[in-house]
Amino acid sequence: MTYVKKCPECGSINLIFDKDRGEVICRSCGLVIEERVVDFDQEHREFDSEQGEKRRRAGAPLSWTKFDRGLGTDVGQKQDIYKLSGKERNKFFRLRKWQYRISTAIERNLKLALAELKRVSSYLKLPKSVEEEAARIYTLAVQRGLVRGRSMESVVAGALYAACRRHEVPRTLDELSEASGIDKKEIGRTYRFITRELGIRILPSNPVDYLARFASALKLNAETQSRAVEILEQAQNSELTSGRGPTGIAAASLYVAALLNNEKRTQREVADVAGVTEVTIRNRYKELLKKLNLMEKVKKSKRKLLAEVV
DNA sequence: AAGACGAAAGTGGTTGA
DNA sequence: TCAACAACTTTCGTCTT
Prior knowledge:
Elements: E1 15-18, E2 23-26, E3 32-34, H1 49-55, H2 78-83, H3 87-102, H4 105-123, H5 128-143, H6 152-166, H7 173-180, H8 184-198, H9 208-217, H10 222-237, H11 246-260, H12 267-274, H13 278-291, H14 295-309
The structure holds a DNA duplex.
């Protein structure tokens, strides 16, 4: 189990992993390359299946979407209890009670919250990796006491939004709002709050990430979509994109691309799927025409349309 | 009649003193 | 903490197709 393949000092590939000390050492020059390495290999050999069974210790993979990360034990499962009697049984009930008490507010909160998280995430058809990330963020937020004074649901939504952004599968605040039933502004607020408090850095989302989804919602063909990507790239090169809402830009690019490819959609239609207003599309669209010298192209394609009709 | 366009006023958030 | 500010929205009247 080695991450390092070559010794940075002498370039030798003759490395040895000292399990007891947790170090990777170069055999040629003696340099300690990595300290405190955790050995993930099995620490035993199996000579037959019986030994394997006995020695293998494994469980379900760790998951942040379980409130105790998939670990955990319940005291006293039904069948066990009836095998016992009297004193022993009382002992079990006492233990159960204690466990219930010990499972703090944090854990109970997590249980509920993660259920909610799964609900929203499956509603939005988010990939597993995003769900895991969101669960991690939420868990951190709970541990830091950031949920206090905020509704659990809004923090869940905020965590999901952040996770989406980090994984470059952005959903709009509107979509999140619809899925979770939380006000858009509220989600935005908690999102900003928890990312700031947890020091999560998030790149401004790229309009391109929205194109595919919007295009399919508008039933535009692939050609139009790639046209929109081109337009978007030109726009970014002309610095038309900074400081603007990414959804508005994506929407305007699609609108123009649709015009050019004779697949016209109304501003209203595009505006609706992108969750912006027609006015915003118009503004972006105007800028696109002016700066990218697409004016003639659009007019030309309009003339062509007319000519075809006549 | 529907869509596109543009002006004007309002909203929520950021920034900088 | 407050005011200035940019982006975006809402609303509404007008023009075009």
